[in-house]
Every structure is written in C-alpha cells, then in structure tokens.
Amino acid sequence: MSFDKFEGSPALKSLVARAELHRSAESQILEALPEDLKTGVRFLSCEEGELVLSAENSSRASQIRFRQHEIMENVRQHELFRFVWKLRVKVAPPRFREHRKVEKQPLSKENARLLEEEAGHTKDKALREVLEKLASHVRN
C-alpha cells in the first residue's frame, strides 16, 4: 500500500505511526504468550500499567487469566511493557465465521410411516394435513 499522495498529511502520518506501534506491540505480546494460548488472542491496549487482551471465547480467556502471572512476567521483559502490573482479558468472538451450509437430511421411510400413523390418530384436520405433507417428503 502506498501513501505517497498523502505525504503532506500529518494526521495520516500519525495514524500510520500509531498503527505500526500497535502492530509491533501485538507481535511482542503474542511472542510472550505460551504456545498453546497464542491462537485466538489479540492485543487491545496497554495504558497506565494495565494490559488489555481479547480472546475469542471464554475458555481461552479463563486460561489466560489462570496463567496471568507467567504471561506478565514474560511481557515485562520487553521495554514497552516493563511497567505492566495488571492484565485484563475481554471476550470478543470473531466477527465473521465461515458458516457451513446446513444440509437437510431426507426423511427415512420408517419416520414417514410413523408420521402417517400419527396423522391417522389425529382428530385435528389441519394437523393431520401437515403430518401427511411431512410424511410425503420421504427419501427414495
């Protein structure tokens, strides 16, 4: 990505510098995490000695909280985080997940027979029609 056309914009330069600092800080934090906790964790901020991370689920957040002393000890070895005294973890599920297409299973012949049998015992006409319609969806 090129920012040449925005070369004179101090606001953009400041924003890019902050983004680069955040990226660098996140890589240092992820490096300090134990191997089994690196996936699904993001660095959010570090202000006034409070390090804030996000985890993709509550079990990962609990694991981080359980091992927070070990994590903070590793994090403090980096100059940027030498004054960290508190660790806070937020749960933030991923925004986008690949949803598997739900495949409807066809109705078995046995289930269709049971639906027809139940329709025969039902006094309600509308319910009987619905059950018979469902029974007609049997796989061949």
Describe the structure.
- By secondary structure, the chain is α+β, with helices and mostly antiparallel strands.
- It has two domains: 11-91, GMP Synthetase, Chain A, domain 3 (2-Layer Sandwich); 104-140, no CATH class.
- The chain has helices at 10-32, 58-66, 68-75, 109-121, 125-135, and strands spanning 41-47, 50-55, 86-91.
- Strands 1-2-3 form a three-stranded mixed β-sheet.
- A hairpin with a 2-residue loop joins strand 1 (41-47) and strand 2.
- The radius of gyration is 28 Å and the shape is elongated.
- The chain starts with 9 loop residues before the first helix and ends in a 5-residue tail after the last helix.
- The mean pLDDT is 87.
- Pfam families: DciA.
- This is DUF721 domain-containing protein.
Question: What is the gist of this entry?
Answer:
InterPro entries: DciA-like. The protein is α+β, with helices and mostly antiparallel strands and about 140 residues long.
Reported CATH architecture of the largest domain: 2-Layer Sandwich
- How many angstroms does the end-to-end distance come to? 56 Å
Q: Any idea what the shape is?
A: elongated
Low-confidence stretches: none
Measured by DSSP, the beta-strand proportion falls in 5-15%
